[in-house]
Amino acid sequence: MDVATIELPRQFTCPFLYEPHPLALKAVERVQQYVATRDDWAEELAAGKMLGVLVAQDDDGRLGYLAAFSGNLAGSVHHDYFVPPVYDLLDPQGEFKRGEAQITAINHEVERLEQSPEREALLQREASARREMEEEIARFKAIMTRHKQERDERRAKNDLTAEQQEELLNQSRFEKAELKRIRQRHQALLQGITEEISDYSAHIDELKARRKMMSEALQERIFRLFVVTNAHGERRDLVEVFKPLGTLPPAGAGECCAPRLLNYAFNHNLRPVCMAEFWWGASPVGEVRHHGHFYPACRSKCKPILDFMLQGLDVEDNLLGQPLEETALDVVYDDPWLTVLNKPSGMLTVPGKLLEDSLLTRYQEAFPEAAGPIVVHRLDQETSGLVMFAKDKDTHKHLQQQFERHTIKKRYIALLDGEVMADEGIIDLPLRPDVDDRPRQRVDLEYGKPAVTQYRVLERRNGQTLVALQPLTGRTHQLRVHASHQQGLNCPIVGDRLYGKASTRLMLHAQSITFTHPATGQPLILQSLPPF
Description:
Elements: H1 22-37, H2 42-46, E1 49-57, E2 63-69, H3 95-114, H4 117-156, H5 162-225, E3 227-229, E4 235-237, H6 238-242, H7 257-267, E5 271-280, H8 303-309, E6 331-334, E7 338-343, H9 359-366, E8 384-390, H10 393-404, E9 409-417, E10 424-428, E11 431-433, E12 441-443, E13 452-461, E14 464-471, H11 478-484, E15 508-516, E16 523-527
Parallel strand pairs: 8-15
Antiparallel strand pairs: 1-2, 1-5, 3-4, 6-7, 7-8, 9-14, 9-15, 10-13, 11-12, 13-14, 15-16
Helix pairs in contact: 3-5, 4-5
């Protein structure tokens, strides 16, 4: 690479929040040029693949770059241009393929038993016996209904002798007893068939239990073979890496770009300088990935691994885990019952796992009289704008009820990376958490929770669009996903490191909030100008 004029970074890239260094951009350019020449991979890459680069130095200070892809490519994990995997799951003679073959054999046996003619005949016998029971009971109940009507008509004439009345009563008693006997007879037959099915199914259940046990054991054995190295030269398998979390590694752990790149570098005495991971091709269904955009490492699979592998490297701070400088609270509204503050971008609304500093902690220091539940609603750390705090329990309850009834209206201003064609509209895309990459959210039309957003274009300028967004529901990252998803506006919010491109900040601002004052009953409309 022609990089003589590019200054080396002082610290290695923070993989969870970064802007690619110029050296990494040069490497990415080379990788993109290379994959564009691979016509044999074109279809697979067009469907979407995460690629990564690592710029490194050898012992003589010479610079070069390594490239990697996530998962496998063209049915293999070995390609000359890319670093090898931490462990080759596709090796036909390897532990994984041997264990997978044994589990596959059980799968075939379970499938054979579940689809066998014997089982199907038993199920048909059960269905037929149940149908016959229901039909006979229905016929007999019809007879009982007719006989009851006849008895009622005879009794209505008031000319029955005591003996005749007893006869009618005995008929009713007999028919009820007979109905019970019919049920018992059919249920006994059904029980016999059910026991046969249960005996047949017991073997299937035994096979499934054995399959689960073998699968869990295989998973642990495989993750013992994924051995990663850190900058100190220490080696650890993934079971040990995830042990402090009290869990086995999730499926796919160790197969992403970053662990592959770092592992190769450390095992070949190369000093990592900077890195970047980018998406190539179409976005996966439900997720938000844009061709050519850079993305942080995933948290569930990669963070525990990278936290170990980066030990010994001087790594950039994760700015989202750093407190903002001390400044006076921007109070938009305050009275004896509630306060509305203007939260800056980069500050948590409430304390997090890794960072205690937040708008709430600073509010409590400035307003010690606030007691009971205080937080009424929240904004993402990177979103700026209006946040409301209650000073007492009754006010908090009243405001929460307004949110539940959707009578509180919030309006956001966002600058989008791209031009939105329609002047206004509604986005209706259900959302759910991405369990493999929290806090990211994904669109899920089947299992997602309803998420609806109204939008209106305010201005189009230089390939960007300024929009007003009104969320009609309150899902996590709703506006960010609805803006960036291809079925939404397909224009990420400028500065969205999760769903678009990182920048100086996320250009999303909670601009106004409209609600009924809990104490006075008067409507309030509070506003804050967006700082962009």
